[in-house]
Amino acid sequence: MAFVNENFLKLSDNYLFADIAKRVREFKAESGVEDVISLGIGDVTQPLCEAAVKAIHDAAAEMSVASTFRGYGPEQGYDFLREAIVMGDFMSRGIKIGVDEVFVNDGAKSDTGNFQEIVGKDNIIALTDPVYPVYMDSNIMAGRRVVKLPCLVDNGFVPELPEEHVDVIYLCYPNNPTGTVLKKDDLRKWVDYAIEHGSLIFYDAAYEAFISNDDVPHSIYEIDGAERVAVEFHSFSKTAGFTGVRCGYTVVPKEVTAVTASGKRVRLNPLWNRRQSTKFNGTSYLSQRAAEAVYSPEGREQTRAAIEYYMRNASIMGDVLRELGFDVYGGEDAPYLWVKTPENVDSWSFFDRLLRKAHVVCTPGVGFGQCGDGFVRLTAFGQHEQTLEALRRVREWLER
Amino acid sequence: MAFVNENFLKLSDNYLFADIAKRVREFKAESGVEDVISLGIGDVTQPLCEAAVKAIHDAAAEMSVASTFRGYGPEQGYDFLREAIVMGDFMSRGIKIGVDEVFVNDGAKSDTGNFQEIVGKDNIIALTDPVYPVYMDSNIMAGRRVVKLPCLVDNGFVPELPEEHVDVIYLCYPNNPTGTVLKKDDLRKWVDYAIEHGSLIFYDAAYEAFISNDDVPHSIYEIDGAERVAVEFHSFSKTAGFTGVRCGYTVVPKEVTAVTASGKRVRLNPLWNRRQSTKFNGTSYLSQRAAEAVYSPEGREQTRAAIEYYMRNASIMGDVLRELGFDVYGGEDAPYLWVKTPENVDSWSFFDRLLRKAHVVCTPGVGFGQCGDGFVRLTAFGQHEQTLEALRRVREWLER
Question: I need a labelling partner for B396 at 20 to 30 A (CA). Which of A257, A279, A342, B331 fits?
Answer without folding.
Answer: B331
